[in-house]
Specification:
416 residues; alpha+beta; 2 domains; seven-stranded mixed beta sheet; transmembrane helix
């Protein structure tokens, strides 16, 4: 064991000597490994950070949440011309389904509408994502408050002029002053601020709650009516835990078809979108991104492997005389083999560490510049180091074998 530790120490010294004696040549040889490790770990770190952000943003939503709407969240066999004829979901359908559905924890109604400006005294915030929803959404979306509250059932049903502001909207309008109870202007009318949401951070799918404002859905219905084609309505179902999703979707379909008067031969004129299907789609995209990163990066690692092999063949040639002396003093072939293998691995790992340092620096810069946390996890660091070691091992096999098979007499004579 002590012999191999000494061997490892000597190999490390030889690797450092190779770096010192010809820095440019060695660094150019290691460049392929550096770029390959950088590419793979950068892609994996970015995808892992994206996955973590998605999981955080969607953690408040149950994967079994169902969206009843005239659009499909994913690919569909229904032709476009037919989808365009689908009617909007109506408020009376929401009230009917609320009373008719079984095994339902919460059921809410939302209208997608255009963006607006919100004013307070001389300050104006433009391009605000307005979210008209029913009162149940505090439980469906798991909204968390920095201060204040969400509107109640009475305020929601009457279409009261109350508003819940996202964190950034509130700070832009009120700075450090108290927003609760203040009046803001939107839709040309005064709304009373009753709540401010906790800071969420940048959103990946459309708007973050930080740049949104929640108002009672019935205010928008009173303002625009129920037949406005510029609005898109959705009924959101949160089924009880453990419910059979197939049976639950069938119940939604059966009851809405009956309410709309669809006959047995008529096809559905609505879509039942399960949130888990959307998350599965996202997981598939993330998996493809990882696969693409691996494919691209493996070419760089292949080039890096040739670079390591090249520098090791040069090292064998430069140290032929030393190899002959070692063998004449009793060094076995296995000792010479491991010496060069360890050296190749150490050189490759040095190149990999440089690549990891580049990823770490870029992650720090992007995290500070963008509202997005790039994380270089310990798992990716270990993976990068392991990959570099494997590349070094594979690349060093042929040079190490050639060194171990040298005849000691011929090796000493060659070096003279």
């Amino acid at each position: 064991m002590l012999v191999y530790l000494r061997l490892l120490k000597e190999s490390f010294a030889f690797a450092l000597n190779a770096l010192r004696s010809n820095i440019l040549r060695t660094l150019l040889s290691l460049l392929g490994v550096t770029i390959g490790i950088f590419s793979i770990i950068a892609v994996l770190a970015a995808v892992d950070s994206l996955d973590r952000k998605i999981s955080k943003d969607l953690s408040s939503l149950d994967k079994n949440t169902i969206y009843l709407i005239k659009f499909s969240f994913g690919p569909t066999d229904v032709p476009q011309w037919k989808r365009e004829q689908f009617p909007n979901v109506k408020y009376d359908e929401y009230t009917y389904m609320k009373g008719a559905m079984t095994n339902t924890d919460e059921l809410g109604y939302q209208i997608f509408t255009k963006r607006e400006s919100i004013k307070y005294d001389s300050k104006t915030v433009t391009d605000v994502n307005m979210v008209p929803v029913s009162y149940e959404f505090i439980d469906i979306q798991g909204l968390e408050f920095e201060k204040g509250r969400f509107y109640n059932e009475s305020e929601a049903n009457s279409g009261s002029k109350v508003i819940v502001l996202g964190n950034e909207i509130a700070k832009s309008l009120f700075d450090e002053s108290e927003p609760i109870g203040k009046n803001v202007r939107v839709y040309g009318q005064r709304f009373t601020v009753i709540g401010v949401l906790k800071k969420q951070g940048a959103g990946l799918f459309g708007d973050s709650n930080d740049t949104s404002a929640f108002i009672p859905v019935n205010f928008i219905r009173q303002l625009y009516g129920d037949n406005n084609t510029s609005l898109t309505n959705v009924i959101v179902f949160k089924p009880n835990k453990g419910v059979d999703m197939g049976a639950y979707k069938a119940e939604i379909s059966q009851k809405l078809r009956a309410f709309r008067g669809l006959k047995a031969g008529d096809s559905d004129n609505f879509f039942i979108n399960v949130f888990s299907g959307f998350t599965d789609l996202i997981d598939g995209i993330i998996l493809n991104m990882k696969f693409g990163g691996w494919v691209i990066s493996l070419f760089s690692l292949l080039v890096g492997g040739f670079g390591i092999a090249n520098i090791m063949f040069v090292s064998v040639k430069e140290r032929t005389n030393l190899i002959g002396i070692q063998k004449s003093l009793g060094a076995k072939n296995r000792f010479i083999l491991f010496q060069f293998l360890f050296e190749a691995i150490i050189l490759s790992v040095i190149g990999g560490i440089i690549g990891l340092l580049l990823v770490w620096i870029i992650a720090l810069v992007l995290t500070n510049v963008l509202e997005f946390e790039f994380v270089l996890g310990m798992g990716n660091v270990l993976l990068g180091t392991l990959l570099a070691a494997i590349i070094g091992l594979i690349s060093g096999i042929l040079p190490a074998i050639s060194a171990s098979r040298l005849d000691p007499v011929e090796a000493i004579r060659t070096g003279m």
